[in-house]
Automatic annotation (TrEMBL):
<feature type="transmembrane region" description="Helical">
    <location>
        <begin position="84"/>
        <end position="107"/>
    </location>
</feature>
<dbReference type="GO" id="GO:0005343">
    <property type="term" value="F:organic acid:sodium symporter activity"/>
</dbReference>
<dbReference type="GO" id="GO:0015730">
    <property type="term" value="P:propanoate transmembrane transport"/>
</dbReference>
<dbReference type="GO" id="GO:0005886">
    <property type="term" value="C:plasma membrane"/>
</dbReference>
<dbReference type="Pfam" id="PF00474">
    <property type="entry name" value="SSF"/>
</dbReference>
<keyword id="KW-0406">Ion transport</keyword>
<feature type="transmembrane region" description="Helical">
    <location>
        <begin position="188"/>
        <end position="208"/>
    </location>
</feature>
<feature type="transmembrane region" description="Helical">
    <location>
        <begin position="274"/>
        <end position="299"/>
    </location>
</feature>
<keyword id="KW-1133">Transmembrane helix</keyword>
<comment type="similarity">
    <text>Belongs to the sodium:solute symporter (SSF) (TC 2.A.21) family.</text>
</comment>
<dbReference type="InterPro" id="IPR038377">
    <property type="entry name" value="Na/Glc_symporter_sf"/>
</dbReference>
<protein>
    <submittedName>
        <fullName>Solute carrier family 5 member 8, like</fullName>
    </submittedName>
</protein>
<keyword id="KW-0739">Sodium transport</keyword>
<keyword id="KW-0472">Membrane</keyword>
<keyword id="KW-0813">Transport</keyword>
<dbReference type="GO" id="GO:0070062">
    <property type="term" value="C:extracellular exosome"/>
</dbReference>
<feature type="transmembrane region" description="Helical">
    <location>
        <begin position="513"/>
        <end position="534"/>
    </location>
</feature>
Length: 555
């Protein structure tokens, strides 16, 4: 491939894309008709707690392996190699911790919202503060996800409105059951999109062996870097240690995920859904990374980003699809459907989760005498509200840069202190409300400080380790300043010159983004314990014994 313009969508591509949208909406309508006799809050928010492990496992995988994965992970492998594959270890660690520690706790408490865990009952504003944090965080992340499908040249507002309308439709009518079964359908579409890219790349390059050899020659297969330096972006330790904690915070306390596995009919089914989720995550990340390796094999002599064919690294995979699959009507539409399916999955997950948090933690405490019918109407009204809110956030997020690291950084900065608050309350009886609130605030200040600092002063290449690319084989290089091997120096964001960087830029601000969550968790727990010890036991505090994890039961 030698660069240049690529084909646009054909009629058949639009047919495949629209078929995916109608299929997702149809599932919502089917679940609405099927469950019309059980139109109550428990059915809407938790599927009547009658779900089984397999569909929930696929839904867990699809909900966060979203458009970010479809677009961002292949670009990550193309730029930095296969170190992202090590996340397979992190996924296994995360699933075990969540299944054996957090799931039994939530089942004992019989909750709908994770923020119902009445551990710090004497200070109600504490819960209000981080419920609001959850809402802001979820809307912000969902605002970035719909942009994944806009890079193919489709109309941005058309995609955003379609995303919002379809999600509002099946979330409002079908509730959690519709979300879970739609996720199953969407995960199949996502995996099919990856397979199409890899299969076409193998045909073009002459087999999977040729792709592997090209990546070996290009230095893309050196995944295991055991350097303990916490400032290096990706090493074995940053991914396994930092990545595991980050994913624990996503799966163990995030309402979007928790709401799925507590919808299972038994504790055993809930645990099995998380262990089955490991297989789904492994399969998804493997196909995503190999898609990135396929992309490198094809463009090893002419990088589209450096050559100016795309405006951002996250547009590389859509560019590859339109470059190599346009001759096959409907196949580019399948890929866009894959990214779009990830978008629908993530947005619908959070709409349903936001409704659950709002109803259980804001509406019910104030309006205690609501009937099931009134709550059902409130659920549907809130689904519409949050759907349109996500559309608005998506428009704002159109100014964001690289989607994968941006999303994971946000996860770490916000969810790390929240995880610390849970761990503090679950494992230490002496923790009180003052300590928990103080630890949460200090943890957020610290993680936001380092996270925002890293955005203003991005780490230099010696910490991020971008791999070399080439434009030597491109047809159009006359407008470029370089035509041979060049590192990824053309960053998406402006990087201040070394002379303009403060001392913290190459130390504190260069901390690997995967450690943001671990940092927030440790700071929150440490400060919370110290402040609790200083202030003493809260006389109005009475810990729910079911909200404490008994360590000896795991020994």
């Amino acid at each position: 491939m030698h660069g240049g313009p690529v084909a646009s969508f054909s009629v058949w591509d639009y047919v495949v894309f629209v078929g995916t949208v109608l299929g997702a909406a149809g599932i919502g309508l089917f679940q609405a008709i099927r469950g019309r006799k059980n139109n109550n809050s428990g059915e809407f928010l938790l599927g009547g707690r009658q779900m089984t492990a397999v569909p929930v496992a696929m839904s867990l995988t699809a909900s966060f392996m979203s458009g970010i994965t479809v677009i961002g992970t292949p670009a990550e492998a193309y730029r930095f190699g296969t170190d992202y594959w090590i996340f397979a270890i992190s996924y296994a660690i995360m699933s075990i911790i969540t299944a054996e520690i957090f799931v039994p706790l939530f089942y004992r408490l019989g909750i709908t919202s994770t923020y119902e865990v009445r551990r710090y009952t004497s200070v109600r504003p504490t819960w209000v503060k981080y419920i609001v944090l959850f809402i802001i965080w979820t809307c912000h992340v969902n605002g970035s996800v719909p942009l994944c499908v806009s890079v193919t040249g489709m109309d941005l507002w058309g995609v955003l409105v379609a995303t919002g309308v379809v999600c509002i439709l099946y979330c409002t009518l079908g509730g959690l059951k519709a979300v879970i079964w739609t996720d199953v359908f969407q995960m199949v579409i996502m995996l099919a999109g990856f397979v199409a890219v890899i299969a076409r790349g193998a045909v073009i390059q002459g087999g999977l062996g040729k792709i592997w050899d090209d990546c070996y020659q290009g230095g893309r297969l050196s995944a295991f870097d055991f350097d303990p330096d916490p400032l290096k972006r990706h090493t074995f330790w940053t991914i396994v240690v930092g990545g595991s904690i980050m994913w624990v915070s996503i799966y163990s306390i995030n309402q979007s995920q928790v709401q799925r596995y507590i919808s299972c009919k038994t504790l055993t089914q809930a645990k099995l859904s998380l262990y089955g989720n490991i297989i789904g995550l492994w399969l998804t990340v493997s196909l995503a990374v190999f898609s990135g390796l396929t992309m490198y094999s094809i463009y090893k002599d002419c990088d589209p980003f450096t050559n100016g064919d795309v405006g951002a690294v996250d547009q590389l995979l859509p560019y590859l699809v339109m470059d190599t699959l346009a001759a096959y009507p409907g196949v580019p539409g399948l890929f866009v459907s894959a990214a779009y399916s990830g978008t629908l999955s993530t947005v619908s997950s959070s709409i349903n989760a936001l409704v659950a948090v709002t109803v259980e933690d804001f509406v019910r405490p104030v309006c205690k005498n609501l009937t099931d019918k009134q709550v059902s109407w409130i659920n549907m009204g809130l689904s519409v509200f949050f759907g349109f809110l996500c559309i608005g956030m998506a428009a704002i997020a159109s100014l964001m840069g690289s989607i994968l690291q941006a999303a994971l950084s946000i996860f770490g900065m916000i969810s790390g202190p929240l995880l610390g608050l849970y761990v503090l309350g679950m494992f230490w009886r002496t923790a009180n409300s003052t300590g928990g609130l103080t630890g949460l605030i200090v943890g957020l200040v610290i993680t936001l400080w380092v996270g925002i600092g890293a955005q203003i002063y991005p780490p230099l290449a010696d910490k991020t380790n971008p791999l070399p690319i080439s434009v030597a084989g491109c047809n159009r290089t006359q407008d470029l300043n370089y035509t041979t091997l060049a590192p990824w120096t053309r960053a998406v964001t402006l990087t201040p010159l070394p002379d303009d960087r403060p001392a913290l830029a190459d130390s504190w601000y260069s901390l690997s983004y995967l450690y943001f969550c671990l940092l927030g968790t440790l700071v929150t727990v440490t400060v919370g314990l110290v402040v609790s010890a200083i202030t003493g036991e809260d006389t109005s505090f009475s810990a729910n014994p079911n909200s404490i994890v008994h360590v000896m039961s795991y020994v």
